[in-house]
Amino acid sequence: MTDLKNVVSIKSPFPTEINSNLFFSFDEFPNIDSSTSNQHIVFKSFCALTEYSCKENDYDGEKFVFVEYDDRKSIGTEKFNEKIKTSKTHGAYVNLINKQADIILVASHPSDEEIKLAVENGVKLELTPIAKDAFIFMKHSDNPIENLSLEQIKMIYSGKITKWSELGWDNGNDIKAYVRNPNSGSQETMKDLVMEGETLIETEDMIISTMKGLVYKLSSDPYGLGYSFFYYKNAMTQAPNTVFLSVDGVDPNANSIFSESYPLTTRVYLVMREEENPNESAVKLKDWLLSPSGQNVIKEVGYVPLFNMD
Question: pTM, whole model, 2 decimals?
Answer without folding.
Answer: 0.91
